[in-house]
Amino acid sequence: MAIDTLEPVITPDLVWKQVRHRARVTLLVPFAIVAYLVYTWFAFGVPDLLMRAQPERAVILATDTVAYKVHVTRSFRTNEFEVATEGERTATYDNSDVPDWVRLDGDNAMIDLGDGYSVEIVGKTALFTIPGYGVIEGTATANGVETVLPESDAPDWVKVDPRKLDVRPTLDRRLQVTKTKIEVHNYFGGWENFWFPFRSPLWGMSFSELYALALSSDRMDPDYSNLWFIVHEFLENPDWQHGTVFVALFETIMMAVLGTLTAAIFGLPLAFLAARNFTPSKILRFGTRRLFDFLRGIDMLIWSLIFIRAFGLGPLTGALAIAFTDTGSLGKLFSEALENIDNKQVEGVRATGASQIQRYRFGVIPQILPVFVSQVLYYLESNTRSATVIGALGAGGIGLLLVETMKTSRDWENTSYIIILTIVVVILMDQTSGWLRRKLIEGK
Amino acid sequence: MMAVAALEQEILSMRKRRQLYSMMGLLLVIAVLVSGYSKSNEMNSGGFLQGLSKFFDYPGEIVAEAVAAGPGFFALILQFVPAMLETLNIAGVATLLGGALAVVLAMASTRNVDSWGPLIPVVRRMMDIMRAFPELIIALFLIFVLGSSPVPAMIAVAFHTAGALGKLFSEVNENIDRKPIEGLSACGASWLQRIRFAVLPQVAPNYLSYFLLRLEINVRASAILGFVGAGGIGQELRRTIGWGKGAGDETAAIFVLLFVTIMVIDQLSSYLRGKLVGSGRAH
Predict the structure, then answer these.
(1) Same domain, yes or no: B24 and B85
(2) Which domain holds residue B226?
(3) What does pTM read for this prediction?
(4) Is the pLDDT of residue B45 over 80?
(5) pLDDT number for residue A434
């Protein structure tokens, strides 16, 4: 009887050894992970971060995303009332044509903020009526603000300061008094002036009115057709800059598509050079593989920085950065796929007397085509995301636009608009590439 | 005879149609490439041909400064190791947390491991959205709320990782052998016990392999996010690049450090993955 057919000898010692080993591993791994997380908790300075965090900024962003405000301002410098959306000069109402919740009367004004809230401005005094609380009186004086509260203790939504009175009983109503002005904010849901700028003749038109206008032969602008005029007014909207946003999105998509296609086109032939079964020369193989490693290792970050220096801002820069990095990644993947092909098919083609090119075309390509297509599509969708990030580094496109609006914007709805469009585009690319992959590879 | 001729005719026409489709596809790709490159060349602030001559200027400049720094260059590299470590930590924590969440998501979204039926499509859509969300957007938003720090980048990368790994993990779950699960249910094991003793042992090597691959991807992502204000090596790079001329040696040191780190992690992870699932599948 051969020894290897015997049952393995199980001694208590062996069992204990294995149990101890298991126990050590099951204890040590979670312990190591927890220790690492604790270490990074302090390395990242999380306690300090939690103290410095400004959650109110998230609230501002959230409210501003779904709402806009109309300012009613009484300036004591010019002694005039001004009613303007978001306080913008380009969106100021004519004082003879203010919204119906504002009534102007010389130096006085009556502002109805709804639900019983109202502000009355009499000369330099603002009277804020708050249901269930009373009337807060703020008067602008030569060197500050005098405040009269119905109760002696100010609730936490009132900030009383000798220089500034700030009352915000609800998120969507606010009164501010300083020595130079009284300002009332009234919030409304939605995105203001989204379709057309405030000054545009098309402002406030309904969809059916626009439709009728587009078909009518009376030109709004003698030089252009009405449809063109509508499209132009929409794209050139100064608050939303639809035109710029669309161009930036297009740039980002272009970066991803061009970069991925270029990488695929260069990666495939190079992959043959790196595959063991196609390139007998060890030096050539080694060289190509190191080239792949080099291209991948430099990383998109460094490539984009180099290309930004050479080619400036724009989609070309992003496309080249993606193309360089992914020639390495795709080349490596393709060469692995090539090494794993079934040689029988190639032999079969060779048996018919096929030339080298024909053997590649009919013996090899059909085998790696599914890998090729699925990987290229996979990289395409992932590169759409990468292109937004490269854009933010300075290559342009939607990423740069996003960083810039975030830095400068007081109106967060612009940022939200860009964010929403970007996510929609990325999800669309994701779904399209998934659909194409299923269609091309599984034939469904 | 007639039938054979008709069949031949049909095969011929099918082949013709296929050739036509391939030609059309190829032409489309070429058209996209040509028009795309010429259009993007126009849109770029610097053109391709003018830029081509300058292509080696910048690398040349920083290499020259690095060479001029002499042996001090290695000290510069060492000086940036803590920043690199921070980037690695961002990637490490993000992969750990995202990976843990991904396991939960995967277990909740695969019929093969007896996930609760109504939850499956919901979790799947959720993973799709998490995967599609660009990391940049979450990072920028959190930097705005939390201030400049590694944590926003970590959360952004972890969020994306959970979606991406969750999808891969659930694909692994779909291909496991159900016999151990059935064996355990026969002895009255609860769902958690079945997951722990029947599913996890089968999927662990593949999970670990994907986990390592993700770690590698996340190191790159964290380095890039640093550039928009999330700390780590990216932030250092932004600083040295902002200084322009004179800081070329520092920029070069960061490039070298980043390159070496990425290469080491890349090689290490592909070696480990090869051990885990056999070299054939370690893409």
Answers:
(1) no
(2) 66-281
(3) 0.80
(4) no
(5) 82
User: Do B92 and B176 belong together in one domain?
Assistant: yes
Question: Residue A1: pLDDT above 50?
Answer: no
Among A318-332, A384-398, B86-100, the minimum mean pLDDT is found in A384-398
Decide: helix, strand or coil at residue B70: coil
**Average per-residue pLDDT in chain A?**
82
CATH number of domain containing B241:
1.10.3720.10
Contact across the interface for A336 and B146, Cβ inside 8 Å? no
Using a CB–CB cutoff of 8 Å, tell me whether A21 touches chain B.
Answer: no
Least confident piece of the model among A33-42, A174-183, A393-402, B61-70: B61-70
Contact at CB, A310 and B259, closer than 8 angstroms: no
| Mean predicted confidence (pLDDT) in B123-129 | 88
> Is residue A35 packed enough to be buried (19+ CB in 10 Å), middle (13-18) or exposed (0-12)?
exposed
The fold of the A242-442 domain, in CATH, is MetI-like fold (1.10.3720)
A406 to chain B, any CB pair closer than 8 A? The answer is yes
Instruction: Tell me how far the alpha carbon of residue A394 is from its chain's centroid.
Output: 15
Residue A251: list chain B partners with CB under 8 A. 40, 43
